[in-house]
């Protein structure tokens, strides 16, 4: 065999092997090989919604649920003039009367909301922070919140560091942390997913300037903070893990303190009044991607409950798991008393479920 032909064959074998290994790593991270042996049911009913109630934040004191919604499929189809909105559910009303009431102001006109966070100051004043994927560029919109939930736009925060913002947690009347789920956009971001590159980060805005607070993350998604403001939680979707950081409230500095691999594609995080976490998840990201392009293809939905330990660690388990028939593409589970509201990325409904405290295995 000629040496040149032999080298070509060796080169082809190396390339094919490398592609196979990369493909296996990505499919494994995306849950392709994850088997769901049994569903974990909950007592649920549907609450009609506009399409894509992707994130929910609950004002426990006032009994209001703020919902960020956008018709993501219309956006993916390239439809012009798609505008999302913020809606409020009055949780103090009888449960059979719950409904989404629009509270979105006219400004900003170009509004494609994603993650959101409610801030309550020591004086009781409320502000809502919302990720906005506007055509002019990504921004964090800050709104004042009236007693009934009506919103008044305060300002837009923009920065070159907001590369691909996904979720936000407010830590002051003008300050926040936000996750960039990718370190780049376009084809580069797709390649970073395929290669499982840890090139995404968390940014911190102190009210005046923005900086990177933590990096080397693999598709960071949901972000939230403990009631005392000293512990920050970040969910990785492709990393299938929860990161825990100690936070210095004076400087905003983050120090990694704990890490838990949970083996499922974590999405938004809700911190309940007792300090436990509810995290919606996508057990099979490949199924989720198929569901994104075809609503007839189901995507499993999962809710993980975590009870952090006082000195690190803690316990975690699944409290809801459905193959996708009841709800596909769960993105948030927000607790209110013994209930939880489960939102999703595409479907025009929210699930209202009894919240179990009994953990099941993943």
Tell me what you see in this structure:
It is a single chain. The chain is mainly β and 362 residues long. It has one domain: 6 Propeller (Neuraminidase). 14% of the residues lie in helices and 44% in strands. It has 4 helices and 24 strands. The strands form 6 sheets. The chain has a 4-stranded antiparallel sheet with strand order 1-24-23-22, with no helix packed on it. A 4-stranded antiparallel sheet has the order 2-3-4-5, with no helix packed on it. The longest helix has 27 residues, at 3-29. It is globular, with a radius of gyration of 21 Å. The model is unreliable at 13-22 (pLDDT under 50). This is SMP-30/Gluconolactonase/LRE-like region domain-containing protein. Belongs to the paraoxonase family. The chain crosses the membrane at residues 7-27. It comes from Parvibaculum sedimenti.
Give the helix/strand class: mainly beta
Q: What is the global morphology?
A: globular
Annotated CATH topology = Neuraminidase
Roughly how much helix do the residues carry, as a percent range?
A: 10-25%
- The CATH H-level superfamily is TolB, C-terminal domain
- Record field, number of beta strands: 24
Order of helical and strand elements: HEEEHEEEEEEEEHEEEEEEEEHEEEEE
| Low-confidence blocks of residues | 13-22
Q: Over all CA atoms, what is the radius of gyration? A: 21 Å
Number of domains: 1
What summary fits the major beta sheet? 4 strands, antiparallel
Any idea of the CATH class? Answer: Mainly Beta
Distance linking N and C termini: 53 Å
User: Mean pLDDT score, rounded?
Assistant: 90
Arrangement of strands in the largest sheet: 1-24-23-22
Could you say what the CATH architecture is?
A: 6 Propeller
Which range does the strand content fall in?
35-45%
Number of helices: 4
GO molecular function, one term: arylesterase activity
InterPro entries: 6-blade_b-propeller_TolB-like (IPR011042), Arylesterase (IPR002640), Serum_paraoxonase/arylesterase (IPR051288)
Protein name: SMP-30/Gluconolactonase/LRE-like region domain-containing protein
Keywords: Disulfide bond, Glycoprotein, Hydrolase, Membrane, Transmembrane, Transmembrane helix
């Amino acid at each position: 065999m000629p040496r040149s032909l032999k080298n070509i064959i060796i080169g082809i074998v190396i390339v094919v092997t490398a592609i196979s290994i990369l493909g296996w790593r990505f499919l494994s991270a995306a849950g392709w090989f994850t088997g769901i042996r049994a569903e974990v049911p909950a007592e649920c009913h549907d609450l009609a919604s506009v399409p894509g109630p992707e994130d929910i934040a609950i004002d426990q004191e006032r009994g209001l649920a703020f919902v960020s919604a956008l018709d993501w499929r219309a956006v993916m189809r390239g439809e012009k003039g798609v505008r999302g909105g913020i809606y409020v559910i009055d949780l103090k009303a009888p449960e059979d009367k719950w409904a989404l009431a629009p509270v979105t102001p006219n400004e900003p006109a170009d509004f494609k909301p994603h993650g959101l966070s409610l801030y309550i100051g020591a004086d009781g004043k409320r502000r809502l922070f919302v990720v906005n994927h506007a055509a002019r560029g990504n921004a964090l919109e800050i709104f004042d919140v009236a007693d009934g939930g009506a919103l008044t736009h305060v300002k837009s925060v923009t920065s070159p560091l907001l590369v691909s913002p996904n979720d936000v947690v407010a830590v002051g009347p003008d300050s926040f942390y936000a996750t960039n789920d990718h370190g780049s956009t376009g084809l580069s971001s797709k390649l970073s997913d395929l290669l499982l590159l840890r090139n995404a980060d968390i940014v911190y805005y102190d009210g005046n300037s923005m900086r990177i607070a933590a990096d080397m993350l693999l598709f960071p998604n949901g972000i939230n903070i403990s009631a005392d403001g000293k512990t920050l939680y970040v969910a990785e979707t492709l990393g299938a893990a929860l990161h825990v950081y100690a936070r210095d409230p004076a400087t905003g500095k983050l120090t990694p303190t704990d890490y838990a691999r949970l083996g499922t594609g974590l999405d938004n995080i809700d911190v309940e009044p007792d300090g436990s976490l509810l995290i919606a998840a996508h057990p099979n990201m490949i199924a989720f991607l198929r569901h994104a392009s075809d609503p007839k293809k189901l995507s499993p939905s999962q809710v993980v409950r975590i009870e952090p330990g006082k000195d690190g660690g803690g316990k975690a388990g699944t409290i809801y798991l459905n193959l996708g028939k009841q709800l596909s593409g769960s993105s948030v589970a927000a607790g209110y008393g013994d209930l939880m509201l489960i939102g999703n990325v595409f479907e025009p409904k929210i699930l209202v479920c009894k919240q179990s405290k009994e953990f099941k295995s993943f």
